[in-house]
Amino acid sequence: xxxxxxxxxxxxxxxxxxxxxxxxxxxxxxxxxxxxxxxxxxxxxxxxxxxxxxxxxxxxxxxxxxxxxxxxxxxxxxxxxxxxxxxxxxxxxxxxxxxxxxxxxxxxxxxxxxxxxxxxxxxxxxxxxxxxxxxxxxxxxxxxxxxxxxxxxxxxxxxxxxxxxxxxxxxxxxxxxxxxxxxxxxxxxxxxxxxxxxxxxxxxxxxxxxxxxxxxxxxxxxxxxxxxxxxxxxxxxxxxxxxxxxxxxxxxxxxxxxxxxxxxxxxxxxxxxxxxxxxxxxxxxxxxxxxxxxxxxxxxxxxxxxxxxxxxxxxxxxxxxxxxxxxxxxxxxxxxxxxxxxxxxxxxxxxxxxxxxxxxxxxxxxxxxxxxxxxxxxxxxxxxxxxxxxxxxxxxxxxxxx
Length: 402
Ligand code: CS2
Ligand code: MG
Hints:
By secondary structure, the protein is α/β, with parallel strands linked by helices. It is built from 13 helices and 16 strands. The termini are far apart.
């Protein structure tokens, strides 16, 4: 069996997606996601100009060997561009293997560990009242877990506050939008939001919050402590994690569960966090962290330390990543939760998929492979459009973490 073609498809049904389609001499093809929000074309070139030509003629059944070829073989290891390209190849190859076996991918991975994948949705509002109402709306839709982000009094454009209600999309301009951040105002406000949420809806639902890397370790410790009475499912990205040791300080001060990992690319980015039990949830997902092959390695390592998974699932992860992640989530023993930000109907039309939402759970469906395809005719109607994530500055103009 041989790979005959590896083609990159770029489409922008409201936001940019980069998709790899690998074809074989046996007529079976596989699909992988390679989208890197705001830096899409770098991965297009990596795949089209560098990795795809090396795949032609290889045996697609040798997934592990091809993964190692992409990782060790480049000499230049890791990084978001390389790992997104490797992920796309790996995801497409698992799709092919599962189709060859005539199985849904979760069966090939080891079979179902659960009946449904608990997801969390995004409730966000311009202010406290609107956010409280939004959480109520998500509860009404059947969600068991809800992330709450709100506009902060005195701050324009706080992180996570969308323009619409269902389809929040931060990459909103042809050049980065500039937003303003002030930690003091946020620290003063966020505990009040969760106090109100618990007073309104009680303690039956899981509530989550994303700090989006904006706090220093001591500020994060302070926030975690202040949120303890409201029993969050997790506090996400409370501080940047390039220095994994930073989480030690946060951990010493709070029992609020900690989650991190959406911008990690390999097991090396989370090795110390996991083995020192400094986090509770590891949020790496398929496209960012080298595909199913590498994500499985991370999850198995995390299981030794009772760290559970919590795959990133924002709209910049295409339905292909969502489908693959759901098969992974259905199998992985140490599953925690899956993020679920809905794609627009235009995106769903470009990527026909077998997964579906019911009662707070996503189900991968029983299609063979990972169950997500790309309709190239519809995709061609939406050409690439430059779009960047915003940047954040402190009130005095200092560039901060968005
Ligand atoms: C966020 C993302 O989903 C999340 O938790 O942190 O929305 C993130 O901002 C985007 O994926 C960036 O592309
Ligand atoms: Mg996040």
